[in-house]
Amino acid sequence: SLSDRLTATFRSLRGKGRLTEDDINTTVAEIRRALLEADVALPVVREFTAAVRERALSAEVSAALNPGQQIVKIVNAELVEILGGQARDLHFAKRPPTVILLAGLQGAGKTTLAGKLGKWLRDQGHTPLLVASDLQRPNAVTQLQVVGERAGVPVWAPEPGNGVGDPVEVARSGLAHARDKQYSVVVVDTAGRLGVDAELMAQAANIRDAVDPDEILFVLDAMIGQDAVTTAQAFADGVGFTGVVLSKLDGDARGGAALSVAKVTGQPVLFASTGEKLTDFERFHADRMASRILDMGDILTLIEQAERTFDAEQAERMAAKVTGEEDFTLQDFLDQMQQLKKMGSMKKMLGMLPGMGQMREALENFDERDIDRVEAIVHSMTPAERTNPKILNGSRRSRIARGSGTTVAEVNSLMERFDAAKTMMRQMARSGGKGVPGMGAL
Ligand code: GDP
Ligand code: MG
């Protein structure tokens, strides 16, 4: 499995500090294989791996993760983003009824979904009505009626014995009925064909025009594999849709279809269907789907653990410094600066918090290249100098400046700032450890 292969790759990468082009290529090649195995469409795989490579090349090196783990983390984040992140809520009409149109191939799971959605909406306090606009198959209406009964949701269907009937007319009269009886949501079930078909698309488009839906949900069988892209594209062009529902996720499909469709159409997956029962239905979770596609839940868990452990260790160490139990060292100073670099993106937010204006100003004046300089200087010191900077006399300082490619003036300036930070940490220790971590480095 991908997990095994990546674990092996990680072992060979362990202990290296940087993301090299080689590391990235090795890991990206494994990811690429995994995506193809998960039935992600080839053009999507290509574009995706290119994006990941770029992101990995420009990524900051993590202290908590080895390079392989870091790339997987990037891959996962990218997947979750394409899959739509946190699934959005349904768009409800300002003035009810909200109209939801279901579209998709025959057997995709539309009628089953109508029941599931009906129950789900009802459980949330809505009053849904299901509308049987699939008049293609003889038993389609009956199937929806059975599903509706089980869900406890009424079904609008053409009068029996009225001939074949017109699905557009049924949809229109269903909506009028819903307005009349004040149903809050109308779910319109439509016909599908076994393959993409012009007549079917035209019918769905006509129903769409008759009811002006707030949501058009494209229902996609997750087992469809490589065909997902062409099918989704055909529905996007022929009917258009605002969201995707993936069905049959209880099967063993790895769910590559989700990625293909989300990437090609740019529409989010909103729900997942995971069985034939009415309750086998949930909001779509992009993070779960990402690890399913990559087939590496355990690796993601390991990555999370590694980061958590690292954060906890750092926090504990910093707490010991702040309370004065431990000496604040140059290494701590460097760590703090690196934390600040990460916080760079928080500048704006900090400015909006009361009392944080000063902090923001400091961040604004904070030069990121400074960190590289500080790092070079600290690394040019001997361990003894790092733990006890008091011994840094003139000749040591000029040796350090030479070794770090800086000037003595820069070394002096760093030592002044370090002393100031140390004083600040001591003050924070005296005030009971209250203060903003990272402030010392400013
Ligand atoms: P439609 O033609 O799009 O209306 O599809 P149906 O709702 O009739 O579903 C086709 C078949 O797939 C039926 O046998 C359903 O019971 C089954 N089905 C639908 N959704 C799921 C699902 O999430 N999991 C499984 N295992 N079966 C499903
Ligand atoms: Mg159906």
From TrEMBL:
It is found in: Cytoplasm. It comes from the Bacteria. Residues 432-442 have a biased composition (Gly residues). Its EC number is 3.6.5.4. Keywords: Cytoplasm, GTP-binding, Hydrolase, Nucleotide-binding, Ribonucleoprotein, RNA-binding, Signal recognition particle. It is an enzyme of class 3 (hydrolase). It catalyses: GTP + H2O = GDP + phosphate + H(+). Residues 268-281 form the SRP54-type proteins GTP-binding domain. GTP binds at residues 104-111, 189-193, 247-250. Composed of three domains: the N-terminal N domain, which is responsible for interactions with the ribosome, the central G domain, which binds GTP, and the C-terminal M domain, which binds the RNA and the signal sequence of the RNC. Belongs to the GTP-binding SRP family. SRP54 subfamily. Involved in targeting and insertion of nascent membrane proteins into the cytoplasmic membrane. Binds to the hydrophobic signal sequence of the ribosome-nascent chain (RNC) as it emerges from the ribosomes. The SRP-RNC complex is then targeted to the cytoplasmic membrane where it interacts with the SRP receptor FtsY. Part of the signal recognition particle protein translocation system, which is composed of SRP and FtsY. This is Signal recognition particle protein. The gene is ffh. The chain holds residues 4 to 445 of 524 of the full protein.
